């Protein structure tokens, strides 16, 4: 995992706070394997099904990591892992009011993206396709609309399978991509990083 992240050229690492074993401090967790002077930590609310759960997890993340950044995920249905637009908006409103830097994971919905920007989210993160699906960017036209209207960075998040899709996202006007499964399972280390550079 550490080698994959290093070779990818990643600058930010997102960490699912709910998946850390915080009850047993003697056990190592993902936070122990990285040099946090080299990376920015981005805690996330993966596993939260409601806005209330996401707000609670964000507060816990700030306590554990010291970071006020939060990747907001509100996903009520584990079968398809699609984000809840209403729960995401409600949680974002509360977290922005509490001083968090909110990076919301959303469906590629230009109206929702604009509303999240209007309440103070630091970025919008439209999905390319469902999390972990490896289906590539299925929402390209919607992402183009979001990019054209956004005054905050646009991060294409989820579903990217091959390095060329990272390049395609940046060619479309996105500022960056968030990739997990494809980098973790990559046979050629560093290909996603080079594709992002090419797309930029």
UniProtKB/TrEMBL annotation:
<dbReference type="InterPro" id="IPR033983">
    <property type="entry name" value="Thiazole_synthase_ThiG"/>
</dbReference>
<keyword id="KW-0784">Thiamine biosynthesis</keyword>
<dbReference type="GO" id="GO:1990107">
    <property type="term" value="F:thiazole synthase activity"/>
</dbReference>
<comment type="pathway">
    <text>Cofactor biosynthesis; thiamine diphosphate biosynthesis.</text>
</comment>
<keyword id="KW-0808">Transferase</keyword>
<keyword id="KW-0704">Schiff base</keyword>
<feature type="domain" description="Thiazole synthase ThiG">
    <location>
        <begin position="3"/>
        <end position="188"/>
    </location>
</feature>
<dbReference type="InterPro" id="IPR008867">
    <property type="entry name" value="ThiG"/>
</dbReference>
<dbReference type="InterPro" id="IPR013785">
    <property type="entry name" value="Aldolase_TIM"/>
</dbReference>
<protein>
    <recommendedName>
        <fullName>thiazole synthase</fullName>
        <ecNumber>2.8.1.10</ecNumber>
    </recommendedName>
</protein>
<comment type="function">
    <text>Catalyzes the rearrangement of 1-deoxy-D-xylulose 5-phosphate (DXP) to produce the thiazole phosphate moiety of thiamine. Sulfur is provided by the thiocarboxylate moiety of the carrier protein ThiS. In vitro, sulfur can be provided by H(2)S.</text>
</comment>
<dbReference type="Pfam" id="PF05690">
    <property type="entry name" value="ThiG"/>
</dbReference>
């Amino acid at each position: 995992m550490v080698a994959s992240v290093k070779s990818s050229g990643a600058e930010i690492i997102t960490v699912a706070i709910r998946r850390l074993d915080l009850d047993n401090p003697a056990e190592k967790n993902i936070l122990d394997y990285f040099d946090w002077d080299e990376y920015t930590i981005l805690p996330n609310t993966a596993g939260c099904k409601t806005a209330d759960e996401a707000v609670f997890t964000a507060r816990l993340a700030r306590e554990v990591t010291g970071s006020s950044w939060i990747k907001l995920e509100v996903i009520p249905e584990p079968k398809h892992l699609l984000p809840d637009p209403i729960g995401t908006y409600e949680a974002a409103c509360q977290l922005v009011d509490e001083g968090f830097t909110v990076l919301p994971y959303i469906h590629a919905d230009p109206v929702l993206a604009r509303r999240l920007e209007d309440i103070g989210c630091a970025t919008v993160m439209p999905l390319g396709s469902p999390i972990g699906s490896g289906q590539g960017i299925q929402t390209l036209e919607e992402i183009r609309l979001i990019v054209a209207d956004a005054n905050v960075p646009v991060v294409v998040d989820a579903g990217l399978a091959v390095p060329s899709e990272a390049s395609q996202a940046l060619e479309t006007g996105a500022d960056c991509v968030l990739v997990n499964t494809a980098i973790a399972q990559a046979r050629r280390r560093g290909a996603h990083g080079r594709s992002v550079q090419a797309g930029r």
